[in-house]
Amino acid sequence: MLQVSDATVAYPTSDGKFVQALDRVSLDMPPDSIVVAVGASGCGKSTLLNAIAGFLPLTHGSIKLDGSAISGPGGDRGVVFQKDTLLPWLSVLDNVALGLKYRGVARRERRERARVHDGAEGRLIVGRIAGALLDRRDLDGAVPLDLEVQERSLTGFAQPVLAIPLDLDFLDHLSHIPGVREVRSIHGERACADG
Predict the structure, then answer these.
(1) What is the pLDDT of residues 122-160, one digit of tens each?
(2) pLDDT tens digit sequence for 54-76
(3) What is the dihedral of CA 153, 154, 159, 162, to 10 degrees?
(4) Cα–chain-centroid distance for residue 38?
(5) Cβ atoms within 10 Å of 18's Cβ, excluding its own
(6) Is residue 114 within 8 Å of 162, Cβ to Cβ?
(7) CA 163, CA 181: separation in Å to the nearest integer?
């Protein structure tokens, strides 16, 4: 359960005043829930998400995930940004596996886990998420600059998908969204391999 209690964020301005980006926001998100933040530009949606991700400290209040306070970024949460944040000096494979690196997984294991095998040919997890879009065999050595815009977005999406354990039953409720069936398949294969 994600619990946000009296979350307040105030930014100092250059003239010594403060801008109240969040003001005593409280909400509980039970496991397996989908929550959508809707509001006008500047109302605090991104501020709240950045605080939940641990990128932004609260001025007042608390945010807890499964009873543990969020005080900074952590491997138990993933963020997919509107604009990809791929590291240009890493290969696509290493970008996909980046979340595993921050969880302390050794390089060899995270590279292996970033691959999913379709029959005799290995493909990156990104290839499965995108289906035929990324049906290319050269992504091991490719860097983000080699990718199309949509491929970069899918690579950014694949990072938290690979790094964070997902509730496979919960994904069944989202199966109408493009790519979710592939994500469920990937995690199902990994669960069978791990079990």
Answers:
(1) 444 544 554 433 445 455 677 888 887 777 777 777 777
(2) 999 999 999 999 999 999 988 77
(3) 170
(4) 19
(5) 11
(6) yes
(7) 17
pTM of the model: 0.65
What tokens were used for 141?
A: 């050595």
Phi-psi region at 148: left, alpha or beta (left = phi > 0; alpha = psi -120 to 50): beta
Q: Is residue 21 helix, strand or coil?
A: strand
The three-state secondary structure class of 36 is: coil
126 CA to centre of own chain: 14
Question: CA-to-CA distance for 64 and 3, rounded, in angstroms?
Answer: 5
Compute the distance between CA of residue 150 and CA of residue 73 in angstroms, rounded to an integer: 26
Q: Which residue has the tokens 């998908």?
A: 161
Burial tier of 183 (Cβ tally within 10 Å: 0-12, 13-18, 19+): buried
